[in-house]
């Protein structure tokens, strides 16, 4: 339970994860970040996201659902949510689903992830993040970007972002985050895979659609 709470407290930091509606008219234009280097990409995207939160904090307090827009604009373009969705379905369940079922599941999973991420982002309080030095890229297809979350009065929290290089586009995108040894993707797979197996992918798709429309609230 302690480790799950750690994930819930830090998942808001970057990921993503995951490009729908335009943000409100008062928002600053989104800056594009190159996807050719996983280390610099994660660091720049994190900086842009934090800046948006700082600049629009008063507006967010009035309408917390704006957090969803910020995630869609700043994080989603750098998250391989399709790959993550397939991983959540799992190899055993994958063969039991149809192409149409998987097609409908992907956007439902994406929106559910955005809502889950947005709720945890309400914990944002200007925590400091330190990035480990970049490692030399050779022929790797998957790398981990290591970071430490620093908050006064607490032990640093270790977070690594798993980033994958697409074979066709040659672009890097994040697909998972590991906080204190706990994989966010594995947690979602554990949560949903058994339901997919028992009730089918269409059932889970509808379930996620209902969860994704949940309003974001600040806990007292």
Describe what is shown at a glance.
With 220 residues, this protein is an alpha+beta fold. The chain is built from nine helices and five strands, in the order αααααααβββββαα. It has a single domain (2-14, 34-212), classed as Nuclear Transport Factor 2, Chain: A, CATH 3.10.450.710.
Order of strands in the sheet with most strands: 1-2-3-4-5
Q: How many structural domains in the coordinates?
A: 1
Relevant CATH superfamily: Tgt2/MlaC
Q: What fraction strand?
A: 5-15%
Given the C-alpha coordinates, what overall shape results?
globular
Largest sheet: 5 strands, antiparallel
What's the order of the H and E elements? HHHHHHHEEEEEHH
The number of distinct helices, counting runs of at least 4 residues, comes to 9
Which bin fits the share of residues in helices? 40-55%
Any guess at the CATH architecture? Roll
Structural class comes to alpha+beta
Radius of gyration: 17 Å
């Amino acid at each position: 339970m302690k480790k799950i709470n750690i994930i819930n407290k830090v998942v808001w930091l970057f990921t993503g994860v995951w490009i729908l509606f335009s943000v409100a008219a008062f928002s600053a234009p989104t800056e594009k970040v190159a996807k050719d280097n996983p280390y610099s990409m994660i660091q720049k995207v994190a900086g842009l996201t934090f800046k948006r939160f700082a600049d629009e904090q008063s507006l967010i307090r009035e309408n917390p659902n704006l957090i969803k827009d910020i995630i869609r604009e700043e994080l989603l373009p750098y998250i391989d949510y399709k790959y993550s969705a397939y991983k959540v379905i799992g190899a055993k369940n994958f063969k039991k689903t149809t192409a149409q079922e998987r097609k409908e599941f992907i956007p439902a999973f994406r929106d559910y992830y955005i809502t889950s991420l947005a709720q945890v982002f309400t914990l944002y309080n200007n925590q400091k993040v330190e990035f480990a030095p970049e490692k030399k890229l050779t022929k790797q297809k998957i790398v981990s970007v290591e970071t430490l979350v620093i908050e006064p009065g607490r032990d640093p929290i270790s977070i690594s972002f798993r980033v994958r290089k697409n074979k066709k586009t040659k672009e890097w995108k994040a697909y998972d985050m590991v906080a204190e040894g706990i994989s966010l993707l594995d947690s979602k797979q554990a949560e949903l895979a058994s339901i997919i197996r028992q009730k089918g992918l269409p059932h889970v798709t509808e379930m996620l659609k209902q969860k994704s429309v949940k309003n974001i609230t600040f806990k007292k």
